[in-house]
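Lecture notes, unit on protein representations.

Consider one protein chain, 362 amino acids long.
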Amino acid sequence: MAQQLSLQSWAARFQLLPKAELHLHLEGTMEPATVVALAGKYGDLLTEGAVAARYAARDFPAFIEAYKWVTSYLRAPADYALVARRMCEQLLAQNVVYAEITLSVGVMLLRKQDVAANFAAICEAAAPYQHRGLRLQWIFDAVRQFGPAAAWEVARCAADLRGAGVIAFGMGGDELALPAAQFRDVYEYAAAHGLHRLVHAGEIGGPDSVRDAVEILGAERIGHGIASAADPALMPLLAARSIGLELCPTSNLCTGALARHLGRPNAHTDARPDSGNDARLAEHPLPRLFRAGIPISISTDDPAMFGTTLNAEYGALEQMGLSGEEILRISEGAFRGAFLPLEDKMAFVKSFRAQAAPLGLL
């Protein structure tokens, strides 16, 4: 009992620390109540229970369908502003002081929306929260299965709005849809225009998907990348080049990505961590990747859809066998892996350590 109380006390103190969130999709922060409100605006009467049922993805294709459905209610700049405000409240409630937020610009363009107007509304909605201690930067994301031409449009939008807070160009969606080589020119354009480069890879694809993201597209960080653990030659490469992995453990359970990498792709049970599913947090490769010297950060991906929070994700690390010291190093490492000037990173690290010391966490 004493040990249990000690661990609970440690977790409570850890939640007081400032945190960074590097892999968070704005659209995936839409809580059921927000979806109900937006759907009602457009004449669809939903209940929060109905939204939660749609969110209960059992595999990656089901998740993609749920994502397409929920984003269909984002139709005007005011809708994005509402979601941005609520996301900022969620982040502040968890002591997040820095976040890089991914926007599904590829989806906006597919739906013939005005990206600049949407982004202006998002930035205006988020501005007051920056005065409350939440620093935000933005990532424009293309959808891989939409093809290179669509990715080019996203990259040009990102370059045009770089001065307004867009720091990176990324690519999500179905990583198995098209080879990385088809997007080489787009990524070279992004780099030439001062944008950082991100790729979702090794989530449901294999280690080669991660290697291609690095070698062909010049990715500086990888979204997910859990497949890297299956390649003993790839892990040292990532460590040597300081290519960070944005790890989202609960997401990997809920989408079936972890089960897939464990050789259990045909499981149809609920993939949530409390369901007794065949993939468990204890089987996640995160500890092996971290102990291989690869920079990792912990993120929530689409927290409303997966029923998680950043504090819960850090709490899950203990179930993976990580020590308190290792969890602190990972949390601090998220600031080091941010797309920030070195002096800004070090200021965040200094603040993190200054707040950890009196809590007895250092």
